[in-house]
Every structure is written in C-alpha cells, then in structure tokens.
Amino acid sequence: xxxxxxxxxxxxxxxxxxxxxxxxxxxxxxxxxxxxxxxxxxxxxxxxxxxxxxxxxxxxxxxxxxxxxxxxxxxxxxxxxxxxxxxxxxxxxxxxxxxxxxxxxxxxxxxxxxxxxxxxxxxxxxxxxxxxxxxxxxxxxxxxxxxxxxxxxxxxxxxxxxxxxxxxxxxxxxxxxxxxxxxxxxx
Length: 187
Description:
Elements: H1 4-27, H2 34-42, H3 56-65, H4 77-88, E1 106-110, H5 120-124, E2 130-131, E3 139-140, E4 160-164, H6 178-185
Antiparallel strand pairs: 1-4, 2-3
Helix pairs in contact: 2-3, 4-6
C-alpha cells in the first residue's frame, strides 16, 4: 500500500508527459517541402551514394537547396537528368564523370557455393535486399536489389556478382521521362 501512491503518481506523470509530447508533435509538425518530394520521386531510389549523399532523399534536399547539381546520379542516367531539368526549369547537363557512369539496370547475385556467411554484405546493403544470418548462406532478394554495388567491396571472398536485371513487373526500375517529370511539376 505504501508503494501504490508513488506508483500512481509516476504513472500519472508519465501519462501527462506523453500527452504533452503528443500535443507538441502535432502542434510543431514541420511540413515537407513539396519540391523535395517531387525531386525525390524522380530519383531512382537506389540509395547507392554515388552522388556523394547517403541516399536519394538527402540528394533531393541538396538539389532543392541549391547545394548539389542535377547531374550527380549515375543510376538515374541522362533520362533522370532531363527529368530533373524539366522539373526545375533548368538546362540538362551531361552526367558528371566524377560521380560515375550510367549502366544498365543490374542486381547482385551471391554464388552460394562460395559464401561463408560473414554478414558484411548484409550490413552494407542500404535497402535490406540481402537476407541471411552470420555463418549461414546469404541470398539476394532480386526484387528489392537496386544494383548499387555497395555489397561487392565488403565481401572477403568475392562471391557477389552483378548481373543484368530482368525487366521488372513494377515501375521501380523504369527511369523517369521528361513527360513524367512535367506532369509532376503541375501537381
């Protein structure tokens, strides 16, 4: 009985602080920048980091702020650059050689007989397309793989190959066209 009152007071205090935090989250919610959302929708979502940003959304934010140019995304290629240029009302530029070259869509494939289960490829994958457990075989879920190549370098036995991607059944691998970007800019 001696602990009941302090326990009730603590529960009441936690409930009051939780309600205060919930109110503050709604009251001070920051609205997303619609331009960042439009730019991010044009980017290929490979999360590869070739643009020197940790993912597509940070790159989209940098483009919107004017801190990055529109030609730093090799997976988006020339079509992506044209779509970004149309969206932002800029002139298209050639892909920056400093950030890589445009390649056809690819996915990683692990040679199962050589995999030692080191877990390094799983830790490197930005989209969680590799499944497995330490000391067991790892497998790439090709529908999730973006072909970013980040899993290849950490592999100590070099058992990961990049192979051409089969045409997707969804729109994820389809590169944006100028018409798509223009229709998004009017939204």
